[in-house]
C-alpha cells in the first residue's frame, strides 16, 4: 500500500500547473515605479547566495474564525536545496487573537501544526519529529519524467494540490516571493500595484500581486509582499487562498547569509518510511 505522502505527491503529474509550465503571457504595461521596484528587488535577490532566516507564521481561517500560530526556520541554498521547519507557537493563557469577525468577536487562537520539509537537490523529504520518521520522494525534472516514471499516478487526484505544487518547486515554492526573484517572470505572471510606496531609502514598500492566469490562481488569489525599502529584502508576505477563506502571514526575522551546513537535518536516528526506491531519480 502506498503511503499518504506518495499518493498525494505522485498525482502532480496530471496537474497542468505553473510548476512545470509558466503560461506564456506578454507582460502588460505596468506603472514605471512598479517595474523599477521589481528590478531592484531582483538585483537584491541575486546577491543572496544563501539564506537562513527565522519566521513566524499566522494562519487565519475566515470560515471557522480561527487563528493558528507557528514559529520556524527557512533555509535556501539553491532552487532545490533548503529547509522549511515550523513548530507550534507557545500560546500563553492570556493571549488572544488580534483578528475579529464582522461582529467584533475575536478568532479562536491555537498553536499551529508541526511541519518540516527538507530539499537535498535530488529529493524532498517530509520529517515527522514526533514519530522520528522521514519519507522522501525524488524531485522530477519535467512533467514528462513524472509521467514515464510513475505511470500509475493517473489514478490519484491530489487533495493537497497547492502543497504539491510548492513542494516540487523547491524551498522557494513553499515560501514564495522571498528568494530567486525574476522581475520579467513576475510581470508576466501577475498584476502589480503599490500599496505603500515607502521612500526607497527607509521604511517599508508594500506590493500587491494578483495572478493573471488560471494556473497561478490555483495557488492563491493574491499575495501581499512587504519589502525593506533600503535593502529590498522581503520582510513579510500575506497569501490569500484561491477561495479567499484562508490567509497565511509569514514574518521573517534577521537573515543569516553566510553559508554553513548546520541547517541540514540529522536523520541518522530517524526511521525511513514509505518506498525507499522513490528517493532516487536514477
Largest sheet: 13 strands, mixed
Number of domains: 1
CATH topology: outer membrane lipoprotein receptor (LolB), chain A
Low-confidence stretches: 6-28, 149-160
Oligomeric state as shown: single chain
What are the salient characteristics of this protein?
282 residues, alpha+beta, outer membrane lipoprotein receptor (LolB), chain A, 13 strands, globular
Structure described in brief:
The chain is of the alpha+beta class and 282 residues long.
Walkthrough of the structure:
The chain is of the alpha+beta class and 282 residues long. It has one domain: Lipoprotein localisation LolA/LolB/LppX (outer membrane lipoprotein receptor (LolB), chain A), CATH 2.50.20. It has seven helices and 13 strands. Strands 1, 2, 3, 4, 5, 6, 7, 8, 9, 10, 11, 12 and 13 form a 13-stranded mixed sheet that branches. A hairpin with a 5-residue loop joins strand 11 (234-240) and strand 12 (246-252). The longest helix is centred in the first third of the chain and has 15 residues, at 32-46. It is globular. Residues 6-28 and 149-160 have low confidence and may be disordered.
Amino acid at each position: 500500500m502506498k503511503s499518504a505522502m506518495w499518493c498525494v505527491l505522485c498525482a502532480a503529474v496530471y496537474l497542468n500547473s505553473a510548476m512545470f509550465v509558466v503560461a506564456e503571457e506578454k507582460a502588460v504595461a505596468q506603472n514605471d515605479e512598479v517595474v523599477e521596484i521589481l528590478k531592484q528587488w531582483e538585483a537584491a535577490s541575486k546577491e543572496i547566495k544563501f539564506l537562513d532566516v527565522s519566521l513566524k507564521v499566522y494562519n487565519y481561517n475566515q470560515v471557522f474564525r480561527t487563528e493558528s500560530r507557528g514559529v520556524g526556520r527557512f533555509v535556501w541554498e539553491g532552487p532545490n536545496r533548503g529547509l522549511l521547519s515550523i513548530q507550534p507557537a507557545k500560546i500563553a493563557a492570556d493571549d488572544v487573537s488580534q483578528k475579529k469577525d464582522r461582529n467584533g468577536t475575536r478568532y479562536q487562537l491555537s498553536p499551529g501544526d508541526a511541519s518540516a520539509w527538507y530539499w537535498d537537490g535530488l529529493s524532498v523529504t517530509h520529517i515527522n519529529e514526533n514519530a522520528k520518521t522521514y519519507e522522501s520522494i525524488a524531485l522530477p525534472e519535467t512533467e514528462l519524467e513524472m509521467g514515464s516514471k510513475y505511470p500509475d499516478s493517473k489514478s490519484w487526484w491530489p487533495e493537497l494540490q497547492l502543497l504539491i505544487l510548492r513542494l516540487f518547486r523547491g524551498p522557494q515554492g513553499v515560501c514564495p516571493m522571498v528568494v530567486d526573484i525574476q522581475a520579467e517572470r513576475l510581470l508576466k505572471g501577475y498584476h502589480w500595484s503599490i500599496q505603500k510606496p515607502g521612500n526607497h531609502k527607509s521604511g517599508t514598500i508594500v506590493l500587491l500581486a494578483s495572478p493573471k492566469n488560471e494556473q497561478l490562481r490555483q495557488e492563491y488569489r493574491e499575495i501581499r509582499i512587504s519589502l525593506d525599502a533600503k535593502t529590498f529584502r522581503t520582510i513579510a508576505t500575506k497569501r490569500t487562498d484561491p477561495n479567499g477563506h484562508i490567509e497565511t502571514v509569514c514574518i521573517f526575522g534577521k537573515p543569516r547569509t553566510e553559508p554553513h551546513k548546520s541547517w541540514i537535518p540529522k536523520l541518522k536516528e530517524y526511521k525511513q518510511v514509505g518506498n525507499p526506491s522513490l528517493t532516487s531519480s536514477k
